[in-house]
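To whoever picks this up:

The parser on our side crashed when reading a file containing two proteins. I've narrowed it down to the boundary between the first structure block and the second sequence. Both blocks are reproduced below exactly, byte for byte. First block:
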Amino acid sequence: MAVLQAVRARLRLVAVAAGALALVGLGYALYPRHPDLRGFDPRAMARSETAMWRHYNERRYLFLFGDLYGNSRTQYGFSPWDSAKIAFAAARAAKAFQPSRSRSAAQEALPYLEDYFGLLARATPVPFDVKAAAKAELDWWQARRENIAPQTYGAMIARVSALLYGRDGEKLREAGVLRAEAMAFRDASGESMTDAGWSTIETILTKAYKILKREVASEPKDM
């Protein structure tokens, strides 16, 4: 009988400890943070985006989710819970867009992009139009697929940045075009893409994010 009571006492202790740990974990995941889309490190962003492109092209959506989650947590400072929601919305948008073969079919990704930008809104230096940002993002995704010149859809990428950061100008366009040129390099390489090619992409993206970081680091002016 004494042994049984001791076992029960230990089980109660384990249950209390497990409950306490669960509460601590839940509090950590849900505790409000002060995220900032300007807080990113350019090299880390370039590394992460290169990995995302690889995983997207290989249809490894679970890995893509992990990349997106890591960005939100480490680069923008979102809570674990919000980071998971952001990653889920972005991964669903990518998954919905990838098999589409027309502009009308590509609209399937739009609600997920609206969710994504709606979540990002807490971390932007200025209020912005979530629906306009989602539409602008989808527009450049489609433009890239239609073999429009990188200079053209790079300017469309810059438009998304302008909405998010509350500023506009040549430097944002330069950063957008560099990202587009990295994508064009990836597209031109096709199935012959190598590790060296991915390193080239990372180098281009690092340059793009350094320009963007310098441009958005200070407080935005009225557009």
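<<boundary where parser fails>>
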Amino acid sequence: MGQAAKPGLKSGSKASLEDLLLSKCARVAVIGMGYVGLPLAVAIAEAGFQVTGIDVDEAKVAIINRGESHIPDVQPERVVRLVTGGSFSATAGYEALAGVDAAIICVPTPLGKSREPDISYIIAATDGIAANLRAGMLVILESTTYPGTTEEVILPRLQAATEAHGAMEAGRDFFLAFSPERVDPGRSDWTIQNTPKVLAGVTPQCLEIATALYSSVFEHLVPVASPKVAEMVKLLENTFRAVNIGLVNEMALICDRLDIDVWEVIAAASSKPSGFVPFYPGLGLGGH
């Protein structure tokens, strides 16, 4: 099953883990130090938690441990303050998971040749967690994926890892949730902290535990009925944004041929109180 429970954490105790999270005494690992994982890790560390970033790219690990940032949305001074203060560090090894109370997966899910999502990075991260899974641990998936991934892919792999030692049950022995990342890179008005955070657990107990962590980091949580709902929320948002970007691009081509300033058209259309969402350059039509 991996490592024994940490001293002070009663095996499988929801109350004990919740106490650690609410008191910010829990140790958190964020797997994947890209444009999703690094901002999230920094936000969690700034909220008062001890955070370890995990990434197979040793160059990224070295940059972080020097107190620098490779993500434009994360200012270097934020990273160096956390690293020098001892609340944030990075590593390329999954062994760091042995001592954490919560592990968050923020790895990429690129599209394959036939445009299907490649979840191999999610599976690799899940297996790394499974090798270190212990009673009283929270696991959250943030990577964009198809509806069903959390319950049909991650949950069985975590449960299978414990079978030799007596299978652990989600919601009783460990806790599993899904919360899609929603921040548009480059925006300064809607940040990781003030963008409403959609969240779902595979059981009500899992949602409670995930809420105990994320309520300290995000200003507003939006709980939904199941991970499948939360996974579909992210797909709807991405689809809506892509369709609107395509629409505005087509309008820009038409305006160019008619010698019309598309930005003037957009600015004037944006004045309507309802029915049109302003376009933000490089980011698509409004929203987050």
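After patching the parser it read the second block fine. The chain has two domains: 14-226, 236-285. Residues 270 and 278 are 5 Å apart (CA to CA).
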